[in-house]
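#structure-requests
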Amino acid sequence: MRCTAGGLRVEENCTIAPVVTTRVQHGEHGRQPLDSFNTQPLPEPSAPSPGHLFYNSEDHSDITFIVGQEEWRFPAHSFILEKTQLTFLSLLRAASTEEQYEEIRSRFSRNENMDPNLVPPVILKLPDLQPDVFEQILRYIYTNQVSFSTVDSTLRLLHPSQVYHLPQLTSHCLSHISKNVNPSNVLMVLSHLLCPEVHHPSISFSPITTLNDNSSNEENHENDNERNELVFKCFLIVDRHADEVLQSEQFETLEHELMVEIVKRDTLEVSSEAIVFDSVMRWACRACKKQRKELTSDNKCSVLGKALFLVRYLVMTPEEFLRGPVSQGVLSKEDKELFLSRLTTHNSSPQTSLPDRWSTWKIAVKRQNYHSLLPVTSPHSELPSSNTDMSVSPSNSIQPVNSNVKRNDRKKKSMSKKLLNGMGDLVICVIQLLD
């Protein structure tokens, strides 16, 4: 897809960011109708911008970037880069020491027209940035153009575009990802959105001390609403396609925090809680291998941490419980006997009757499919908070919109069930008293 000042058009499955074209279009097909008597001459094409002229050019280049471990070489021009001042300063900060940064910034701030043949260009090294990502950033700065091919490549560009203060480029990335996120890539998208430091460990936000801190912070948080909306959409996809997502290989590679966020959700539309348990065990096995630990029950419990308590054991069938938690041996003998007793005798005692170590967890609460009536694109009023940590994930108790009737029906059924259970308990108590 290509975006121009004149509109949108599809081209080789690529998304091109808005760019001002260098020619004037006339009529529907770019020409005057044959039956028109208007013989006015066509306007001459407009002149290309300086960025288009100097992109990929050595002419008047006074900066050379050496990028990546393979050390790709990119010529650049300070008079072009300075138009995006925050970006220019961030690149300088990332590629130089404190002394070099002040010296280089002082040189370019004098705006002296120095002959590149007499004064060698400044060499800036960015070994932690991927060359193809930097090329996209440089092309966008020069020509206001960017091309997207896959979600994966767009995700690799997303975080650097934020770090180097290019909010419009970040917006294009988020838009392209949002249009193409699906159950097969949603975990990868969530991982990049919520754990960027894992995928870009050497790229972090650089403090820009030469500018007002408030303006810098505004630049960094300009895309928060779009980002949070995308996070919300991703969690809706996870909920609706829980079986497919949890059983995917990508789930095993998730960061512990993100895995916990998914497993604890009340709104996962899983066909069986056994799928949740199996997915958690697969994750634990991979984590043990990664940490060079033996695949013992104790080690699995250790790497899982609180994730072990997030499985809803008491909504399983006795067969699922025997085939899963009992055979895996991750629960104590006491816990296995207690849970199995409640599952086989249909014990309806409240959650508080559980041992203290289990009483605060929702192991007897069935997950609710609240999202079945929600649209994929959420209204702004339903968006999660703008925090940057894991708390940005949507609430686990989101209610469907426009479903008051069905909600009331569920409440009536629930009240009727509780009333019948209460009557049964009362009859049992009376019989015991009479005996």
